[in-house]
Design a protein that fits this description.
It is built from 9 helices and 17 strands. With about 375 residues, it is of the alpha+beta class. A hairpin with a 2-residue loop joins strand 16 and strand 17. It is elongated. The structure holds coenzyme A (COA).
Length: about 375
């Protein structure tokens, strides 16, 4: 349980936001030059929403520090935590009249140091528009490594190339410590709206929604440790695991996660999904029963899903993470026309071990180009 926390650095107080900070944030965030890499400068409504949200967040999942200098808020530093993989995304901003003094680096250093210890993180990553030199230099000064560039990402922000940086715990030279204080309520949000998931048909397969009757089929292929090697699902895999998986699959809002059962000769033999990451982009994931490997079936299923993503869902970018070593899966992505964008080091935990992922993507203009 992480509580809202204050950290002090040489020149700054880093503390939780208060609603009384709205005017300070609006002062700097309404500046069009400051907002060059945002969709637009903040107006009062956006600022109020941002600050109010920062006041109610659960610090178990997300830490947002207001950067206070001489009694005024001049920026923020945030960590969005994924407890399962022990990774977090670092975010930051700083008022333009405070640029060039190393304040953002000072604040980010304190938060990174605190985050590694508080959440037991193994990896902290950050991303920025590849043209945002100031932000890239900040990540470099933190000792982060540039791991890749995501092409044509975050189109809703008018951004094209997103540079990804990361820092592993083993690479961090901790400068020293800080202390926690009081707790706030958390806001749980989950949508279970069941819009129609379109059925997709290929030469040999039908992709459709999961049904309760699929439990035995799922259990039959998922209980195979070789199938599970790179997936990191529970082992041994039980009928109950299959049931939970199907229940979740039935509850997903297809707008957020489109999860299809792969049906081959009337049997549910695998799954494939598109998970929306931002309005223009989604991640792709899949698996198929071992008895069917090597017949081009996943390439067939994934082609249909990628076509659906680009042609029916208006996506600009589809990407996938493949553990280093999962060559058949990498091959599927390459056959789809995906390109390697980088290697995300120590990105996840699979069967108790931290693994590196190869990041692949395909852009709409590459598709059938
Ligand atoms: C990865 C997986 C989905 C591939 O499914 P599939 O239906 O066998 O895929 P395809 O037949 O369309 O293509 C597989 C390709 O990998 C190649 N391949 C197989 N074993 C390989 C190996 N050890 N090294 C390199 N390539 C290999 C195949 O030859 C084929 O390429 P080709 O068509 O050029 O000959 C399937 O193995 C699977 O479900 N694995 C378990 C779950 C998983 O790992 N999911 C992906 C997580 S990132």
């Amino acid at each position: 349980m992480t509580k809202p926390t204050e950290l002090r650095t040489e020149r700054l107080l880093l503390r939780p936001f208060r609603l009384s900070d709205i005017d300070d944030v609006l002062r700097y965030a309404s500046d069009p030059q400051w907002a060059a890499f945002y969709p637009r400068p903040y107006d009062r409504g956006v600022t109020e929403h941002m600050v109010a949200r920062s006041v109610v967040i659960s610090w178990d999942r997300e830490a947002v520090f207001a950067m206070e200098s001489d009694g005024r808020v001049v920026g923020l530093v945030s960590l969005e935590v994924d407890a399962e993989s022990k990774t977090a995304e670092l975010g930051y901003d700083l008022a333009r009249d405070s640029w060039g003094q190393g304040l953002a680096t000072e604040a980010a250093t304190a938060v990174v140091d605190w985050g590694f210890r508080e959440y037991g993180l193994a990896r902290i990553f950050a991303e920025a528009d590849a043209r945002n030199g100031r932000s890239l230099r900040l990540m470099e000064r933190l000792g982060m490594t540039r791991e890749g560039v995501q092409r044509r990402d975050q189109i809703e922000r008018g951004e094209r190339e997103i540079a990804r940086y990361a820092l592993l715990r083993s690479e961090w030279n901790s400068p020293g410590g800080t202390l926690p204080s009081t707790a706030l309520p958390s806001g749980e949000y989950e949508t279970t709206d069941r819009n129609q998931l379109p059925e997709l048909t290929t030469a040999r397969l039908v992709l459709r929604r999961f049904r309760p009757g699929d439990i035995e089929d799922v259990f039959a292929f998922a209980a195979d440790p070789e199938w599970n090697r790179y997936l990191g699902l529970p082992e041994p895999y039980s009928r109950r695991d299959a049931e939970e998986f199907i229940a979740k699959a039935m509850l997903y809002d297809p707008e957020a996660v489109s999860m299809w059962a792969i049906v081959h000769e009337e049997r549910c033999s695998g799954s494939i999904y598109l998970r929306r990451e931002s309005p223009g982009s989604a991640t792709l994931g899949y698996s198929i029963a071992r008895s069917l490997w090597g017949r081009g079936l996943m390439t067939e299923a994934a082609s249909a899903v990628v076509a659906h993503g680009f042609e029916d869902r208006g996506l600009a970018r589809i990407y996938a993470f493949v553990p280093v070593g999962n060559d058949p899966s990498a091959r599927v992505l390459e056959k789809l026309g995906m390109r390697r964008e980088g290697i995300l080091r120590s990105n996840r935990v699979v069967h108790g071990k931290r693994i590196d992922d190869v990041l692949y993507s395909i852009l709409r203009e590459d598709w059938r180009a």
